[in-house]
Amino acid sequence: MRSIVVLCLCAAVAAAVLVHELPEGEAQAEGHVSRPQEIQSVAFDGPDLPVAALRSVLASRTGDLLDRDKLATDRASLQATLVARGYLGARVESAQVLFDESGGAFITFAVTPGAMFHVRDVHVVGAAERDTGIVTLAKGAVASADRVERARDALATRLRVRGKASAVAVTLAPDTDTASVDVVLSAN
Fold first, then answer.
1. How do residues 79-109 score in pLDDT, each as one tens digit?
2. CATH number for the segment(s) 33-112
3. Where are the alpha helices (DSSP H) in 85-141?
4. How far apart are CA 105 and CA 42, in angstroms?
5. Which tens digits make up the pLDDT trace of 3-45?
6. Do the Cβ atoms of 188 and 171 come closer than 8 Å?
7. 105 contacts 46 by C-beta, under 8 angstroms
8. Residue 33, C-beta contacts closer than 8 angstroms, at least 6 positions apart
């Protein structure tokens, strides 16, 4: 019985020494020690960002090993996500990577979303006027990719149902000075 008490006491002292020697915060991380070039965090630096949408398109994740090709893909995905949301002038800089003393990687993407673009004008080319009424993309609407695609798809479907040309191309003419865009839907 006495040996069990001594053994328990030794185990308690050893545990206290281990916890005491860990830097603050590491005890909470359940003793996790990062591998060299293991991603510790991915952050975005910029105003009014749709962080959840941006985070959802990242290929680089916490716990993965640093991969420069993935970072280049992430940069392009981030920019495409912002453009699709109507930020046609968005800029995403190359990832800045900082390392801590254990080699863990901390990644930051500097993001400048720019102004949200709105539709200035919509032109339909190659379709009869009665077919163009299906296009509900209106002046002043946010120039998001999904809205423009819905307008393109609606016109293509209408023309297909009426036995006309069904391919509809979209051309965007952005005006950065006014943060507006002209949309041209061309039926072929």
1. 999 999 999 999 999 999 999 999 999 999 9
2. 3.10.20.310
3. 129-132
4. 9
5. 443 333 334 433 333 333 333 344 334 555 667 799 999 999 9
6. no
7. no
8. 102
Asked whether the CA dihedral 162, 167, 173, 174 is positive or negative, the reply is positive
Please check whether residue 185 is in contact with residue 125, taking contact to mean a CB–CB distance below 8 angstroms: yes
Helix axes 145-161, 68-84, angle to 10 degrees: 70
Q: Which fold has domain 118-187?
A: Ubiquitin-like (UB roll) (3.10.20)
Report the alpha-carbon distance of residue 62 to residue 58 in Å, rounded: 10
Which amino acid, one-letter code, is at 52? A
Tokens of 75: 């940069």
For residue 63, which amino acid is it? G
